[in-house]
Amino acid sequence: MGASSELSNDKLKWMYTQMSRIREFEERVKRTFVEHPGVIRGHAHLGDGAEASIVGSLATRHENDLVMPSYRCHGYPLVLGTSAKAVMAEIYQRKTGVCKGFGGSMHLADPAHHLPTASGIIGQGIAHAAGAAYAAQVKKTGQVVYSFFGDGSSKQGAFYETLNMAAVWKLPVVFVLENNEYQAYTHIKLEDANAIAGDPLSQKAEAFSIPGVTVDGTDPLKVYDAVNEAAERARSGKGPSLVESKFYRFSPHGNAITVPPVPTQFQEHEAIEVYGNKAEFAAAQANDPIKKFRAHLIGTGVLTEADAKKIDDSVRAEMDEVVKFALESPLPAPEDALNYVYA
Amino acid sequence: MAREMMFAEAIAVAITEEMQRDPSVVFYGQNMAMTDRDPFVRKFGKDRVRITPISETAEMGIAIGAAMNGLRPVVELYMAEFMLVAFDEVINEAPRLRYMSGGQVKVPCVFKAGFGFAAGWAGQHSNCTYHAMMGIPGLKVAVPSTSADAMGLMRAAIRDDNPVVYLHHYMLTIDKGPVPEGDHIVPFGVADIKREGTDVTIVATAWMVKKSLAAAEQLAKEGISAEVVDPRTLAPLDVDTIVESVKKTGRLVLVDQAPRHASAAAVIAGEVAEHGFEYLKAPMKMVTGLNTSVPYSEPMESYVLPSEEKIVSAVKSVLARHAAAV
Q: Which of B19, B62, B72 is the best residue to mutate to test the A interface, defined by the most A CB atoms within 10 Å of its own CB?
């Protein structure tokens, strides 16, 4: 039995609620491309399918621990306490956005809620997370830093350089490698040596002589146990660990890249759109982490069907308000663009 | 009271004194702090002074993350070209994060490196990379030319709340010069007139300041009074002081070790063309590196780089152009 067996019913309900919020939020982002074309610009990357991994990881946090995700970053601030309205408003390019319209979907930041920044460049945020952990070590803040990145990032130089240096310096950081099997549009079996050999990606940890584990990222309790062990190891001064969390993203890499005024939307997942593999996608959907956790909580008596429905309804109501707020919020003034260049 | 100090020593003293003043300043890089005898390790311990692997992306990326969580890292990169290995961190991370966060975070860190090593280091270790960095909003670029400026600009860089690329010219490393006592700081964006003159303005940075001052000395013997202006920081750039000098002299020679195209000299020329054109009595002239990589063999290396003679000749040419026009 892992540490998750001691989670209170309230915490378990909180975890289900957060997973549900992420899913509903991402659904609303996706629908926006259809219902309000042009409101979201550029490239948005959704975290549907990652809910158990995100929430299972963040449920292990202590109060001041920091979180540094990749550009697929909508879910984390929702769990950390950032207003969902401010996150959606940012994605909708509004002045009321969490970054006042300066960052958008790929660059969410809310240091007041322990998310300093998210880098839009693959893998680079891994180094920033280790840096925040170095500051925690020098200043003895007791913080652990959670670094989230995709399987594609694990082929970047930043990954190798940073994990080596974090291991040498015994930095209090947990590296969560979110393996969703696709590096943007490319299947992992086409680009990852471990995957091609049939080995887990957590094997990369052996190169740095640090612990590396692979966990079912569709089960928040299994994620909790693995990440909790890594976080406690980091907190006790023993250094970093690599946790490979395996799940499937239900949306494609991002909305289709189009040149204005051609409208953009989310297409089918690459499994279908590129590789014609409907069976793979159907199997992943049958393994939906939210449905599974909902059934688990009802099965173990933590929630009744009515409780679960009440949570689902309240999440939908919240996201109705979130979209309304973001749509009605003002755009920034053009000349606001000259702010924040220098501190 | 001023004291004599070598250029490199002035930088080391500035870092040391800033580390004494502020416990959040840390200093790390490759091949430094290898033993407990290292003077920085002895003074500040192994938390704040560290050796790193040859991992520029991680070194600078970690500085960025540490800066966002309360430290003021100074990263010793040694050679400016090593930053190119990890240019994303310099150009597309450090200066972008504050802006993209809507002003919520700040990234106070210093990326320190030598540059321009015109001593047979050939194509990959002799370059002037500042022209690729000075046009990035959010990033500051310091290029000192004297011991006093080296010290004052390093202090200012460490205290700045923004990412700073601090480039010290290798050919100045053992030059000695006076350094003011006390808390000597050189603010960013303030050019310095290294020599006053009335006939022509020479704008130069780093090692080229030394060459321009030597050229001005030679010109003085021939009755030509050259003013030498050193911007000291290329971002921000003190256009006002340069234009004021041009207003006084009416003529401009821009000296830059980098190849001409997209050089700092070309950028300054553009500013003067817009803001000081009416003061020019003759077309300005640029003395820059030739459009080649830096060659290894000495006669070729000398040939492609600006020299005292080339500067003297350019000054005479802008004066002659004036005479011809009259």
A: B62
Helix and strand element counts for chain A (H, E) = 12, 7
Distance CA B11, CA B288 (A): 27
Domain of residue B295, residue span: 192-325
Instruction: Tell me the shortest Cα–Cα distance from A64 to chain B, in angstroms.
Output: 11
B175 with B197, same domain? Answer: no
Q: Average pLDDT for residues A131-153, to the nearest whole number?
A: 98
- Does the beta-carbon distance from A102 to B62 stay under 8 Å? no
CB pairs under 8 A between A and B: 163
pLDDT at A324 over 90: yes
Full-model pTM? 0.96
Percent of chain A with pLDDT over 90: 99
Q: Which residues of chain B have pLDDT under 50?
A: 323-324, 326
Compare all CA atoms of chain A with the CA of B85 and give the residue at the minimum distance: A157
User: Cis omega before residue A77 (within 30°)?
Assistant: no
pLDDT score for A38: 94
CA closest to A336 among chain B residues: B102
Q: What's the whole-number mean pLDDT along residues A288-315?
A: 98
pLDDT given for residue A59 in this prediction: 98
Determine whether the interchain pair B98/A162 forms a contact, defined as Cβ–Cβ distance below 8 Å.
Answer: no
**Residue B187: per-residue pLDDT:** 98
The residues of B annotated with a catalytic role in the active site are: 56, 125
Look at residue B47 in the predicted model and tell me its pLDDT. Answer: 95
In a domain, residue A124? The reply is yes
Residues B92 and B166 placed together within one structural domain of the fold? yes
| Structure tokens belonging to residue A48 | 């549907």
| B70 and B98 belong to one structural domain | yes
* Domain total in chain B: 2
In a domain, B69, yes or no: yes
Digit-coded pLDDT (tens) for B132-184: 999 999 999 999 999 999 999 999 999 999 999 999 999 999 999 999 999 99
Q: Note whether B24 contacts A139, CB cutoff 8 Å.
A: yes
How much is the pLDDT for B322? 53
A-chain residues near B56 (CB < 8 A): 161
Last residue of a domain, one of B151, B180, B209: B180
Question: Do B258 and B293 meet the contact criterion of CB atoms below 8 Å apart?
Answer: no
Nearest chain B CA: its distance from A11 CA (Å): 29
Does a structural domain hold residue A340?
no
Taking contacts as CB-CB distances below 8 angstroms, the residues of chain B near A162 are 55, 57-58, 61-62
Which of A103-125 are b and which e, b meaning 16 or more Cβ less than 10 Å from the residue's Cβ?
Answer: bbbbbbbbeebbbbbbbbbbbbb
B234 and B171 in one domain? no
Give the pLDDT confidence score for residue B139 in this predicted structure: 98
Question: Which residues in chain B have their CB less than 8 angstroms from residue A139's CB?
Answer: 24, 69-71
E strand or H helix at B253: strand B252-259
Question: Domain holding B304: CATH number?
Answer: 3.40.50.920
**What was the pLDDT predicted at A1?**
65
* Model pLDDT, residue B2: 82
Q: Are residues B89 and B165 in the same domain?
A: yes
Within a domain: A342: no
Is the bond preceding residue A261 a cis peptide, omega within 30 degrees? yes
CB contact under 8 A, B101 and A135: no
Contacts of A120 in chain B (CB under 8 A): 100
Distance CA A287, CA A219 (A): 10
What is the CATH classification number for the domain harbouring A288? Answer: 3.40.50.970
CB B199 within 8 A of CB B226: yes
Structural Rg of chain A based on CA atoms: 19
